[in-house]
Amino acid sequence: MKNPYTGALKIGVLGGGQLGRMLIQSAIDMNLSIDILDSDLNAPCKHIAHRFVHGDLQDYDAVYNFGKKLDLITIEIERVNIQALKDLEKKGVKVFPQPHIIELIQDKRLQKQFYVDHNIPTSEFVLTANKEAVQAHAAFLPAVNKLGKDGYDGKGVQIMRNAEDLSKAFEAPSLLEKLVDFDKEIAVIVARNESGEVTSFPTVEMVFHPEANLVEYLFSPASLEESIRSQAKLLAEKVITDLGMVGLLAVEMFVTNTGELLVNEVAPRPHNSGHQTIEGNITSQYEQHLRSILQLPLGKTDLKVPTAMVNILGADGYTGDAIYEGMDAILAVPGVHVHLYGKTQTKPFRKMGHVTIEDQDLTALKKKAIYVKKTLKIKA
Questions:
Q1: What residues does 255 pair with on adjacent strands?
Q2: Averaged over 244-272, what is the pLDDT?
Q3: 252 alpha-carbon distance from chain centroid
Q4: Helix (H, G, I), strand (E, B) or coil at 325
Q5: What is the tens place of the pLDDT at every residue in 3-19?
Q6: Given a cut of 80, is residue 181 above it in pLDDT?
Q7: Spacing of C-alpha 2 from chain mean position
Q8: What does DSSP assign to residue 347?
Q9: Tens digit of pLDDT for each residue in 139-154?
């Protein structure tokens, strides 16, 4: 690969959302230029990308033509055209994470089977072809029905507790996962470069919105026994190593009521569970992603300070021009850092930004996070 500091390396990212925006912000610190392809003419990356190209991420020609003059391509979203990436790779373009790994992770059915094949603990599941096949497994309930492909941010997920819920089953290839009786939901972000160097971030604890199935609060470090944190770290590192993946991987896990760890899902890119690393860790997840795909030494990931992260979500019942209420109040709180994503239009539960809060006292940290969540509102 060309030296990224000669100015000759041409880097492209598929996806121009908030993850791409924060990746560009980190790239600017490293004097790197990033080209972006996105289907949204008003994508958050539009005005800060070195070059912004409008195009469908799932269209072969759009992806191939975007990438053919680049040296390196990465992603900020998995819903991309895999064949175009495979052909670009054959042409000599570096693609990280590798196309076959993105392809596997795109399909939750293949993802779950990978865990089984590699002795990675995960919840019991059944593969189902359609709604009728789901309904034939009433005895498997309670369970979660997940679309094999195209589910994201809580979409493509149905909880089925009894036979009456079977009417909500997906009429598409999906899977039924046994509903896990868990104590906490946690995540470990891990990075790997081409040399096989692997580094993981400290385990974080996630609290999900009960309706939208989106992360509402995140706390770093997770309030767990050190033995469980160590197990989570080793498990995340096993997943990325068994995949042979180059890049950044977010590994979401359940901690069961008996202390067992089960891998839920993974994301092969920067992730919502790592936003707080910008302020809270020695190296941010965005810098680490760049380091990993550019074959640079991976950065130290130690915590600088305990942090919480609150997602700024569009309020239920409001669609239109975004108006922020309570910004002055939260900015008066010590240790608050606001990140807005450049989205001018709000709609229910849309990710409009996030707030990182830092405090050495964990009790005070949680109080501040709750205050921020209650105080900052987006209306139209």
A1: 184, 261
A2: 97
A3: 9
A4: strand
A5: 676 567 999 999 999 99
A6: yes
A7: 28
A8: -
A9: 999 999 999 998 766 6
- DSSP code, position 2: -
Q: Are 269 and 19 a contacting pair, CB within 8 Å?
A: yes
Nearest to 285 by CA among 297, 265, 271: 271
Q: What is the CATH number of domain 11-95?
A: 3.40.50.20
SS3 312: strand
Q: How many of the other CB atoms lie within 10 Å of CB of 371?
A: 17
Q: Helix, strand, coil % (nearest 5) of the chain?
A: 30, 30, 40
Q: What superfamily in CATH does domain 124-178 come from? A: ATP-grasp fold, A domain (3.30.1490.20)
Backbone phi and psi for residue 11, each to the nearest 5 degrees, phi listed first = -115, 135
Inter-helix orientation angle 60-67/82-90, to 10°: 30
Which pair of structure tokens corresponds to residue 145? 């029905």
Rg for the chain, CA atoms, rounded:
20
Q: Give whole-number Cα distances, 305 to 119, 267, 277, 331, in Å.
A: 35, 25, 10, 19
> Which pairing describes strands 125-128 and 174-178: parallel, antiparallel, or unpaired?
antiparallel
For residue 67, give both structure tokens.
């990438």
pTM of the model: 0.94
Q: What is the mean pLDDT of residues 312-328?
A: 93
What dotted CATH number matches 182-379? 3.30.470.20
The string of DSSP codes covering 32-101 is: --EEEEES-TT-TTTTTSSEEEE--TT-HHHHHHHHTT-SEEEESSS-S-HHHHHHHHHTT-EESS-HHH
Tokens found for residue 234? 């080793």
Main-chain dihedrals φ then ψ at residue 166, nearest 5 degrees = -65, -20
Sorted by where each begins, the domain ranges of the chain are 11-95, 124-178, 182-379
> Using one digit for the tens of pLDDT, what is the confidence trace for 73-119?
999 999 999 999 999 999 999 999 999 999 999 999 999 999 999 99
